[in-house]
Design a protein that fits this description.
Number of helices: 8
Shape: elongated
Strand order of the largest sheet: 2-1-3
Radius of gyration: 21 Å
Structural class: alpha+beta
Largest sheet: 3 strands, antiparallel
Order of helices and strands: HHHHHHEEHHE
Strand content: 15-25%
Distance between the termini: 22 Å
Length: about 180
């Protein structure tokens, strides 16, 4: 299932200026540097022994188990280039906004005499900076996926269905069954 939080992360990662380390040894060395050279902290973070971390750092182990490889990559990506990540978020929230490309089932309440039946739509829209700021701030605060989905639905409702507030006041948009979702900064 496509999640709003993961797609926001991917959009921010698109601003990285250097590639994320690929090998398990390089990823492990990066995490050790990020944790003040403490192999114990990295071991606790990844749920493995301190000795195993040390063996990865020295390239004595080259290929991790698939579940460890996923955790390792996720932790490295979460910490990679924090200043670049912060600048990209600031630019999206202040000036450029964020592009959203979504294919989902939209349900909404409409005026009497028109249909409010949910249907699949494919939308590509530029969300203004205020909506980008709300989404990125909520994600940074650690809100759950349902709240992020609700914020995205509000933004889409205002920009697309209400034409930035010029029509259809009182329209409640609900984002259901996301088929595909992508954000770009």
């Amino acid at each position: 299932m496509v999640t709003v939080g993961e797609e926001l992360d991917k959009a921010v990662q698109g601003a990285f200026t250097r590639p994320v380390p690929k090998s398990a040894g390089a990823q492990m060395r990066y995490l050790v540097r990020q944790h003040q050279r403490s192999t114990r902290r990295v071991a606790e973070l990844l749920g493995i022994s301190q000795r195993t971390v040390e063996r990865y750092v020295r390239n004595q182990i080259k290929r991790p188990r698939p579940e460890l490889a996923d955790r390792l990559e996720r932790e490295v990506r979460a910490r990679w280039q924090p200043q670049v990540r912060a600048r990209a978020k600031q630019a999206a929230a202040a000036t450029s906004g964020i592009m959203i490309d979504v294919q989902a089932r939209f349900g909404y309440t409409a005026a009497a005499g028109s249909t409010d039946q949910a249907r699949v739509r494919h939308l590509t829209l530029a969300l203004p900076p205020r909506h980008a700021a709300r989404l990125l701030e909520a994600q940074g605060d650690g809100v759950d996926e349902d709240d992020l989905r609700e914020l995205a639905a509000e933004a889409l409702g205002e920009v697309y269905f209400r034409d930035s507030g010029r029509r259809a006041h009182g329209l409640e948009v609900e984002l259901k069954d996301i088929v595909d979702l992508e954000f770009k900064l």
